[in-house]
Request: fold
Amino acid sequence: MRVPGAIALAAVAWLWTLTSAVGVDPAVARTAGEAEPTPLGRAEALERLRGAADRGPLPRDLAMQLASIEMAEGNTADAARQLESVAERFDSVRALLGLAQLRSRSGDVEGAFEALDRARDLAPNAEKVLAAHARTALAMGRPMAAIQGLEQLCRMHSTVPQYPYLLGIARLQVGDLAGSEEILGTAMELDPRSVLTRVALGLVYNKQKRYEEARGVLEEAARLDPAELEVAAALAESFDGLGDLTEAEALARRVLEARPDHGNANLVVGLVRMKQERYAEAKDAFERALRAESSPKVHYQLSLAWARLGDRERSQHHLERYRASLRDMEAHLRQLGVGAPAAEQGGAG
Amino acid sequence: MPRRRRSAVAALVVPAAAWVLAGALGASTVKPAEDGPLRSVLRAMALAESRLGEGEMEMAESAYRQGLYEGWRLVGSLAVAEGDDDAALEAFRRASTVAAGNRDALRSLGLVHLRLGSAPAAVAVFRDLVLRSPEDVAMRRLFSRALAADGQAAAAVQELEEARQRAPEDPELAFTLGMGHLRLGDRAQADALFTEAAGSPPDVGILVLVGRTYRDFGHHDAARGALRRALELDPEARRAHYYLGTVELLAEGRAGLAAAAESLRRELELVPDDPQANLFLGMALVEERRFGEALGPLEIASRGPDPSADAFHFLGQARFGLGDLEPARGALERALELASPTGPSPGPPDQLSSIHYQLGQALRRLGRPEEAARSFEAAKSASADLARDSRDRLSRYLESDLAGGDAADVTSTLQTPVASSLVPLSDDERKALRTEVSTSMARAYLNLGILATREQRFGAAADLLAVGSDLAPELPGLQKALGVALWSADRRGEAAAPLAKARRSAPDDAALRRMLALASLDAGDPGTAAELLEADVASPAAGAVEPSLGYAYALALVRGGRAAEAAPVFERLLTENAEWPELHVVLGQAHAQQGDFEAAKASLGRALDLRGDVAGAHATLGEIHLRRGELESAEAALRAELRSHPADRRARHHLATVLDLRGSSDEALDLLRALVEEDPGHADARYLLGKILLGSGEVREASLHLEAAVALTPDEPQAHYQLGQAYQKLGRVDDARARFDRFRALKAAERGAS
Reply:
């Protein structure tokens, strides 16, 4: 039996009153990571802090405060300078996280990753640091760099569904399909209503040519969130695998209307065109897919399309790229201690 | 991935968490110890708290986790030192999940698995470690050992071959690999590897080890060869004579006793106080009936730091053989103490029986026939094979010496410097150390929990704080923080216990009292809830009633079956809160409880007018229809409730009841099975499920559910009756009769009460 929400709210409201009355000691608030509220206005504080900074390096808290104001004012370079200074002088993880965030926002993902690497050295067990590091590695297309941290996060925070999900994605990216399927199962248990976990699982099944299972899990995802384009793109691939080209193309088109550069949707269109023997259109679609994401499957299909179009040289080039990708994948899998990847070529071979 | 929606409750409780944090941090003064087993734990904790002071939350978290890692490893080492492998396993498992780097904890975990004989678990642990650090030859060796223990001898050798490629000069690896080949029956390979391991000129220590290994695998001649070679090179080589003695016993049996005794004597010339060699020699001499000579070695063996029951048992035999009856009795009684099931080294029944028997003989000859008779009786009841004699004991001891090699290796590998420093500690010192480390760790869990609470990750906070509460429940602020976190994580029922504990140290804390009241209501304890809220609502000093408090109080009264007392509270509440749908639902429930169904329907109708999906309105209407026998209307109302609140277990149970009554047993069964799976302690669902299954001839399954229902509600007569029916159908006449008797007794008590 549950207490209705209204009572719960009321009960907590008493606590609110009580804590307001007790108050939080400003020293403790500062200890807990909150900047002490400045009695000055932002502009005046900025002026004074800048003045002080011109005279020499600021103490940690003031430098962090200045960085925060600079950021709010949109002066990212000045903010970064303060954060770098704090990170350097105090080995501050807080500053490094701020720096990574700034660099990431300005598109400097390598720089963000470098700051997070340093933060991880200083705080190797901190959840926020490990998670930011792994996410950035994934975003940079470096799944191997993400896997170790994600495995640690899964172990240390076994009830957070996000970590097994991300680990599933990382394993999928390196071609460890069995490992990905297993950990995505864990993610699903922790968050049974997750659409994205279903999409990832559908992609794993698609890669294993288990198209019926992929369709099942992706249709569930579509019921949970009919508007999610990733579901439609993955489902399009399943339908292509099942030989339903009409449905596959319709779904892929739906995705491309919203995002013309979508990798998987372009791949599906290419696969359909190959089966229709419209090789030039297939080649165009694969090239669009390749611009979105380099994958062995796209290279393989491009090699086929160019071969059908009579361009042996380009065909050979993509075949080599396909083989090189497979070799990379094998190396990753050896590092992970799992078997060789299934040759991923797609359905029009 | 979508984040769990943050509730309004969660948003409001944050200030409370900040308050708790203030308290916790305000009290923190960890001083790192200069030395001792706690040093690394306290150093990490001190670093964490200094990082907190600098506002470096992530660094503080990381250091706390490092402290917890060290702490759990220390707890595991304490358990190892005390021989509590299960506790060690749990501690190392926790250590392996609390920090990012967990290599040492996993290694210890794997070793404890090996010691416990859980070879597959050890294989999994070491495989993972080897995968992470393929260059770690020592880890590969452990992996190989786990594989061998798991019966995967070939894989074990393969693993060692791979390790050897990385460390071709490592003599230990060559030796271990030789042992692997010996296990596979490849003696030639083993010989070559052992020669390589021993080196040139041969290392005496390795030769002794090789001799022991040949002995363990039954290659007695090769064992003699290696051990004699060791003695040629160094006549004082430790253990060489000892192993030679055991080889003689193993190879020749009784015929080798004299040679064995000679070898053991020579070992003792080198190390006169070696308890194991003395024990073996004493045993061999007793076996040869050379009781006088056996006394000296057995006295030494029985004076060792951890004397075995065998030492006293054989000493008793020797004394008895010499006619020293009183000392024989003393030694045998000491042997019994050590070997008894509650003693430090419980012995098998035949050993106990043998000791009792010999003690009986000694007592009889001492002229104490009654005590002797008791000993003979005890010997019989230990169901031993009395034909077994000292020779069997000697053989068994030899076998354990063989098997003990690996176990001893595992144990010594587990003895890290910290673990070794714990061994000499007394029980009291270990207890004090455990308390100290637990308190430090609980403090770390408290602060980690508070940091998580501040970030509104209440579930994670509650999990952390719960571990802290297991370690040191009395740590100031911990129970309150746990209660708040559980409450905020929407686990309000669970919050009741910690909040109640927190209230013991702050009985005047009104906020705590109110929160506990609401948590108690959720935990199904309306009596406590009403009692705690009475001061706010019912006492004359309460003044104007806070609506939500009044509502909770009224709800607690209704749920506690005190609907009449709730009436005035409702009156006051309705005056000011006429548009509050939940209030009308509870009022409807109060009317229904008192049998005023029309008034109940009016209140419930009003509630539904105010909000069509208000929780409980349709369900209460359904119950009213059910009580009136209006099954169709009851079904419709309960289905309506479940459309808006599909998880409502009470409504699901009532719908199952209605469906059963309407003949839709299949749907009722589906509902009840799901309900029981979700809540195995739902007695009503168990009962109904059992009853329906019984009616449909599924007697065996029915009996299981009815047994559960009886266990859950032992005073419910109908459950006993139905279970009796099930037993009758299963042919369990006596069990059925017992259930029917219980049914009649409970019915009679009910009639008496009414």
The first helix of chain A runs from residue 5 to 22.
